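Thread: pyridoxal-5'-phosphate complex, take 2
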Amino acid sequence: MPRYVIDERALRRNLEILKEVADRTGARILLAQKAFSCAATYPLCARYLAGTTASSLFEARHGRENFGGETHVFAPAFNPGEMDELLGFVDHIVFNSPRQVELFGEKARARRVSVGMRVNPEVSVAATPAYDPCRPSSRLGTKQEFFSCPDVVEGLHFHCLCEQGAEELSKVLAGFEERFGGFLPRMKWVNFGGGHHITRADYDVESLVALIADFRARHPHLQVYLEPGEAVALDAGTLESRVLEVQPKGADGIANAILDTSAACHMPDVLEMPYTPRVTGARTGAEGPFAYRFGGPTCLAGDEIGVYSFDHPLREGDEVVFEDMAIYSMVKNNTFNGVNLPDIVLRGEDGTERILRSFGYADFASRLG
Ligand SMILES: *Cc1c(COP(=O)(O)O)cnc(C)c1O
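Output below.
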């Protein structure tokens, strides 16, 4: 069976970087659970981060019950039938439009939940439209032309980045202040969203610290929040799998290798984003002496992970390790084709491994009615 292995040492390394940013800037940093929601690691994360942010009732509850600290939530539109329960779990609620504030703002205030609005600064910096909340037809965040700010609103939120650096943030921040800066004197907080790749080796942490310090110098009354997801668990986990069969080489000189893990089921972002994950000990592409096209055990023709080259031939039973699989993997996986889910394993700092969760037939059958 394949396994997701979360590496506590790598996680802590990321958390230390994030805490340093928080300590040096006064910003509060939240885990965006949409990227990584492993509750067994939350006690560790909670020593470094201020809380969590959520995209739904269930994520909000998960953050409140397992992480503690502050719990924030944003959704493009909230379900009225869930609002009472949701307000019991959160400290901040970020609405996407003036209409949503009109519907739920007073109710939130009555429950002492801080009300914010997500705005759209209209600064496109994300590399692909699927990950660009400022794309022309975006439903995410209110544009300046439609913006109004009821009294109940005490914070503004923007989220425009995806795997990006301080330079892109500075462009977005400039656009945000140009369009919405006039409302800042009335606010208590500003949330800079996620997509900050702070823990990536080449991220310019000094520029981020300077940017936040500069913002705070101009707006000393505002609490700044950041809510990265990826950066918290970047490179903090792998997906370990095995070769089930190696087929004969095709006309292109590449052999299909069928693995016991699936892009469609266990790493959907490979197909959705799309991207080719790194494999330990292999190069991406067909340039090496032994090239293989990795595919999953499902009957989806497009369930291909990528082409990789090795210095040695691969055989049945060999291990294949996909890197950077703590994020956007467990939170998105599924049992399409009845393929079982990988175990979730935590590797402690002393190297010992603990199986957090194994899955079976009941997990498949219970979701299908
Ligand atoms: C996705 C998302 C995040 C986290 O993004 P990362 O790219 O994982 O850092 C934070 N806030 C909001 C509103 C999001 O939609």
